[in-house]
Request: fold
Amino acid sequence: MSKALVSIVMGSDSDLDIMREAAAALEGFGIGYEIDVTSAHRSPERTAEYAQKAASRGVRVIIAGAGGAAHLAGVIAAHTWLPVLGVPIQSKLHGLDSLLSTAQMPGGIPVGTLAIGEAGAKNAALLATAILATSDETIRQKLEDFRRKQSEAVLAVKLPK
Ligand code: RP5
Reply:
């Protein structure tokens, strides 16, 4: 795998099944990524350090997934200038708590928040790919191919009569 351009982080290893969707999507484009667990609440110093050093490691986009009182994406965004994409993980309140905790950032520190759960994790990776595609012709080509094939698959659907 090439060097990590995208960092996938999550608040707990219990988030991994969802966040694997992001990793799988990046692998489909051959985009290098790192994946790790760090918690805004349980390991706050390490989370800050992780975010502060991401850009100098060569990371260009961070995807952060967390559930419940989901502050991970916001805390990471507070410690880096890199674009941060938040994935709300399903929770005891069906992920609505995670969604609001991730999305409702104060003006000045943005988190691009995706849908709750698997679709959000997949789309975070696709959005990270699109961000990278603005300055990388090879990635742009792969993303355009993916979108074309996806459209063709919809057109090819034949429902039973
Ligand atoms: C959040 O709390 C994590 O992101 C996870 O979604 C949720 C529950 O964590 P565990 O108690 O399963 O470790 O910080």
Notes: The chain has a mean pLDDT of 97. The chain has one domain: 4-155. Residues 10-12, 14-15, 39, 66-68, 89 surround 5-O-phosphono-beta-D-ribofuranose (CB under 6 Å).
